[in-house]
Amino acid sequence: MERNDDTITEEEARRLENAFGDNEFCKLMAEYATELSDPKYKEEQENYLAQLKTRNELPFGKALVWPSR
User: Fold this and answer.
1) Core vs surface per residue 37-56: b (16+ CB within 10 A) or e
2) According to the lineage, what is the superkingdom (predicted)?
């Protein structure tokens, strides 16, 4: 089911709650957050995503959402 809003379903909320109860998931999420806060990594990822968009290589039905700065 495709939605065009940024709310989550009860099922998604339940799955997130369960995931954050898992220590391994929390560890991986912390590592991911650390990577995202690294300006060099962030720039590399943004360049990669922009390249996908420019080459029209995004998965069908998917769109990039850029955070406001």
Assistant:
1) eeeeeeeeeeeeeeeeeeee
2) Eukaryota
Per-domain residue ranges for the chain?
A: 10-54
57 Cβ partners below 8 Å, 6+ apart? none
Taking only the tens of pLDDT, the chain with its 69 residues reads 555 667 889 999 999 999 999 999 999 999 999 988 899 988 998 899 989 989 989 888 888 887 776
- Secondary structure, 3-state, 10-53: HHHHHHHHHHHCCHHHHHHHHHHHHHHHCHHHHHHHHHHHHHHH
What's at 47, amino acid-wise? N
